[in-house]
Write a structure and sequence with these properties.
Two copies of one chain form a homodimer. The first copy, chain A, has 264 residues and is of the alpha/beta class. Chain A is 23% helix and 28% strand. In chain A, β12 and β13 form a beta hairpin.
Chain lengths: 264, 264
């Protein structure tokens, strides 16, 4: 049984393990009017990640809370788009790090205005000085352990939409809040699942659409040189709230922008 | 200026970044009566880690809050030992991961009873199946990003005091809540600072005391074989609340226990 907290009530339990250890998960979901965009994909991911972290939660319970949140908040935005956030934690208490069997999850619900959308003509991106470290057991999980993304995002400044992060092997893996796709002569490429810190919902959508259109897609490492090679036809960042964002300038070098991924 | 929250008031801000991203730090401090054990070391670490994460906090402010907490809670424990916890976060708000300049830190204060102390005759330990990943930029920081330790600690069961975690290079680095020391024919060894997830306060104390006694100490990687070699005279775990804990059985193999480190 999950305990639900509404952010506007202003109080969350101080003993919660999400706060203590980042022991939980979150989803930020774009809502258009009363319709949660990619709702099933978001619920899929939260339910799957909860299982991987052994946080006992029922997908139907998440879905009911999401529906209640849509009813509760939609009128604030009078038909405009907004962002719904669900934060699921393992609950309050336990003795130190070790989770105890009686823990009951907490689910915090909050909402925010839509961020400004990036221009369809493309954005400016750079490389982060913060290396990305991904634990192979927990790759892709949208957990509350996001210090690396916070510190990388603190490098962002006006005019730079995103910084890309590399792992110890030198592979360019993802942005702070985006997954990475490139189009090459040999088809599409995106870093493999076991390398990513967050397995984006929009990454899944793009992969499915590309495959449905008969496009060739490889889940394989992306190296720095791959993005600047003449064979590279475009670099894209994906995010479920912001959509598919072409990169027109990367580390002060211009890249080709065709917008082909957005069309597909 | 830090905003202080007392856990017994039962409410913490739902928009706090400690909860959202693990964007913060914590200290658990043993208190004997009204005296905070290793107080200076704990304050040193929190102030240093805050600087590394660029959380603007004044060490004197942390110290004043610690003093207030000692006055506030000590009577509950009528002279017995207890544990004080300070959780410092970057504050509430900001737009996504990116910290904004106007953020003001939150400081949550809570207390708990002393955990049972392990027997001086030594404890049983094992190896964790969870690999340890440490970002070189953030090694040693006692941040709120502790999913790996939570998942490793969930492997603990009755009679096993601790599980030791190895990094991708196969070095045995630390336990979920302890640092590691071994005594060999060539002196003492503990894994180097850039390899540890948490740079324990007790690790610092032990290093200082060993050096003051003229003992030879190496901050160097510890391999599995080092602990089971005939040259190994003892394996110890350190924690500022629990002290110095000899390991008598590791992965079902008996180890020599001399208790020499506790004597020093």
């Amino acid at each position: 049984m999950v305990t639900i907290y509404w952010a506007e009530d202003g109080a969350f339990p101080p003993g919660d393990r999400g706060l203590a250890y980042g022991d939980g998960l979150f989803e930020t979901i774009r809502v258009d009017g009363r319709s949660a965009y990619l709702q099933i994909y978001h619920l899929d991911r939260m339910a799957r990640d909860a299982e991987r972290l052994r946080i006992p939660v029922d997908r139907a319970e998440l879905e009911r809370t999401l529906q209640k949140a849509l009813e509760r908040y939609s009128d604030h935005y009078s038909g405009n788009s907004w962002v719904l956030k669900l934060t699921l934690t393992r609950g309050s208490g336990g003795r130190g790090y070790r989770p105890t069997p009686e823990l009951q999850p907490n689910l915090l619900v909050s909402h925010a205005a839509m961020p400004p959308l990036p221009p369809v003509t493309g954005v400016v991106a750079d490389f982060s000085r913060v290396p990305l470290t991904v634990n192979p057991l927990f790759s892709g999980i949208k957990s509350l352990n996001r210090i690396e993304q916070v510190m990388a995002a603190s490098e962002l400044h006006d005019g730079v939409f995103e910084v890309l992060m590399a792992n110890a092997a030198g592979h360019i893996v993802e942005g702070t809040r985006t997954n990475l796709f490139i189009e090459t002569e040999d088809g599409w490429r995106t870093p493999p699942p076991d390398s990513v810190a967050v397995m984006g919902v929009m990454r899944r959508v793009v992969l499915e659409r590309l495959r449905a259109k008969g496009e060739i897609v490889h889940e394989a490492p992306v190296m720095l040189d791959d993005m600047f090679a003449p064979s590279c036809r475009g670099v894209y960042l994906t995010n479920s709230v912001l959509g598919i964002v072409p990169v027109r300038t990367l580390a002060e070098q211009d890249l080709p922008v065709t917008g082909r991924l957005a069309t597909i």
